[in-house]
Design a protein that fits this description.
With about 260 residues, the protein is of the alpha/beta class. The protein has a single domain, classed as 3-Layer(aba) Sandwich (Rossmann fold). The protein is built from seven helices and twelve strands. The strands form two sheets. Strands 5-4-3-6-7-12-11 form a seven-stranded mixed β-sheet, with helices on both faces. Strands 1, 2, 8, 9 and 10 form a five-stranded antiparallel β-sheet that branches. A hairpin with a 4-residue loop joins strand 1 and strand 2. Helix 1 packs parallel to helix 4. Keywords: Methyltransferase, Transferase. This is Class I SAM-dependent methyltransferase. InterPro entries: Methyltransf_25, SAM-dependent_MTases_sf.
């Protein structure tokens, strides 16, 4: 699907649609002026483990980011696509002669980004719409997890290849799931017993009275990512870790 989140007047809608609670979260935070601790969503894993996410993270400035995210933005060249761009914080930080396009499946997120003057369209990593091809593909904010699962990843990587110009780079923030925390190690072992990669996370999110459908995110170590890329058009060139966080910047190149 490729469309802008606009009313017939050409202006972004004031409210996200009822099934777009994530978009409502971003609209509410943006309208109030983003501040820490004021707009929260619940992330629920399918084993009952829950955590809280602050919407402020979607509006942070570069000086509040992990160094690897600043590094990714600095490495972007040419025509740039920000996949899963949310409110557009990374696009706002891109400077120079970049032509930058963002896609996100949330109409509310698209509306917030467009209100900030960004070229953002509704789309997903596998259904990006008619956006063309790019020199740099960004999957930041942990969006390497959009690979989804071992089974979903080939379709995602094929879609990324179609979006890539010759020699394009994919800059993605991943999260290494391997930890000593028992609540996560037990989950990883259950995944192995069911034939899944240990870092495949089945989750849903909640905001106010809204609850999303269940969906998968894939957390990978750099070695697991390298193995997953085998036989595709993509090669992992470097993986730069963010000490003490589990996050890393994966820099991949396209050989097609």
């Amino acid at each position: 699907m490729n469309e802008t989140a606009c009313t017939p007047t050409g202006k972004p809608p004031h409210d996200a649609t009822p099934d777009d609670g994530y978009g409502a979260l971003l609209r509410d935070a943006h309208a109030a002026g983003p501040r820490r601790g004021t707009h929260l969503q619940i992330i629920e894993r399918d084993d009952g483990f829950v955590s809280i996410e602050d919407a402020y993270r979607y509006f942070t400035r570069p000086d509040e980011w992990l160094p690897v995210e600043r590094q990714a933005v600095a490495l972007a060249t040419g025509r740039v696509l920000d996949i899963g761009c949310a409110a557009g914080r990374h696009m706002l930080a891109l400077t120079g002669d970049h032509e930058t396009v963002g896609i996100d499946p949330s109409p509310g997120a698209v509306a917030v980004a467009r209100e900030q003057g960004l070229d953002v369209r509704i789309g997903t990593v596998t259904q990006p719409g008619d956006v063309g091809t790019f020199d740099t593909l960004l999957m930041l904010g942990g969006n390497l997890g959009l690979l989804g699962s071992r089974e979903q990843a080939p379709d995602v990587l094929d879609s990324l290849t179609r979006l890539a110009r010759q020699g394009a780079r994919l800059l993605a923030i991943g999260h290494d799931p391997h930890t000593a925390a028992p609540e996560h190690r037990t989950y990883h072992q259950r995944n192995r017993e069911h034939g899944r990669l240990p870092g495949q996370v089945r989750m849903r999110v909640r905001y106010k009275t809204w609850t999303s459908e269940w969906f998968d995110r894939l957390l990978l170590s750099p070695d697991e990512l390298r193995h997953l890329l085998s036989g595709t058009a993509w090669t992992l060139q470097t993986a730069t870790r963010s000490p003490g966080t589990g996050f890393y910047l994966a820099e991949m190149t396209c050989s097609r």
